[in-house]
């Protein structure tokens, strides 16, 4: 299974619609891959809090529409990164300034262009500010069965919470996909945690960040694909716009888990 991570540049001077068209073009260029991943909040910018409400969109909004077409044209499974979702009837009053119905929601499409899963980020970043103050939290861990592996989905700050990844593993995930807009200041945490989640869960980790600077926050980039033994298969060398590609062997997860059966030795559940 060939996986490609698109470490997309999020330049505040590029209009959002132009970036959608550009991202769709990059997805189409990955038609030789089976699975393609985009980063977190690449339309608006993960730190562009002031724009969240104005750029919020429903699950059938402009990002979903163009990504559905791109997945279908490229014939790929597409993790289209996340959008600021405005969920009608979720508690807000529907006005542009009301944030109670906003979620950071990752969209996952089949090669037929069908939206097969929408994962609302469970751990919101910012402590008492930023995303944590502006958005609601998701509640449901997300697994997505593909023909060759089962994906577990996580978004950015979720990477710091090993219990989510263990829950995904318990639910059958063998390939853990993280979309992110991770700051450069904590790049060392990003690389370390991506490998740790792979080793402790004996799973592939596909971690896709953004390039560029959003709202004055330089991004880490360094998107990475790690195998179930903790070996890095491919990694972006910096925070530029890059496509990171590797071949995954889904059966290797079972081999590692059988040969070195630490998951079987768990005591605390
Ligand atoms: O945990 C971190 O250091 C970064 C998290 C983050 O930027 C996010 O979740 O948007």
TrEMBL record:
InterPro entries: C-N_Hydrolase, C-N_Hydrolase_sf, UPF0012_CS. Keywords: Hydrolase. Pfam families: CN_hydrolase (PF00795). One of its GO terms (molecular function) is hydrolase activity. Residues 1-250 form the CN hydrolase domain. Belongs to the carbon-nitrogen hydrolase superfamily. NIT1/NIT2 family. This is Carbon-nitrogen family hydrolase. It comes from Streptomyces taklimakanensis.
């Amino acid at each position: 299974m060939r996986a490609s991570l698109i470490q997309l540049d999020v330049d505040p001077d590029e209009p959002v619609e132009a970036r959608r068209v550009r991202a769709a073009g990059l997805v189409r260029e990955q038609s030789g891959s089976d699975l393609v991943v985009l980063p977190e909040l690449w339309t608006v910018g993960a730190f562009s809090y002031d724009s969240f409400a104005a750029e919020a969109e429903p699950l059938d909004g402009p990002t979903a529409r163009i990504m559905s077409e791109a997945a279908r044209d490229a014939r790929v499974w597409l993790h289209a990164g996340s959008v600021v979702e405005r969920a009608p009837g979720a508690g807000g009053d529907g006005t542009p300034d009301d944030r109670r119905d906003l979620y950071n929601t990752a969209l996952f499409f089949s090669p037929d262009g069908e939206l097969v899963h929408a994962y609302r980020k469970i751990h919101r970043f910012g402590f008492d500010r930023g995303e944590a103050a502006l958005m609601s939290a998701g509640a449901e861990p997300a697994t997505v069965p593909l023909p060759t592996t089962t994906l577990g989905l996580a978004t950015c700050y979720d990477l710091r919470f090993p219990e989510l990844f263990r829950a995904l593993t318990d639910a059958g995930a063998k390939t853990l996909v993280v979309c992110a807009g991770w700051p450069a200041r904590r790049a060392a945490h990003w690389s370390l945690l991506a490998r740790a989640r792979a080793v402790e869960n004996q799973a592939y980790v596909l971690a896709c960040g953004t390039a560029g600077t959003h709202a004055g926050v330089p991004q880490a980039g360094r998107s990475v694909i790690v195998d179930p033994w903790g070996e890095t298969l491919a990694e972006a060398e910096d925070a530029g716009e890059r496509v990171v590609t590797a071949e995954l062997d889904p059966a290797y997860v079972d081999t590692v888990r059988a040969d070195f059966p630490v998951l079987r030795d768990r005591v605390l559940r």
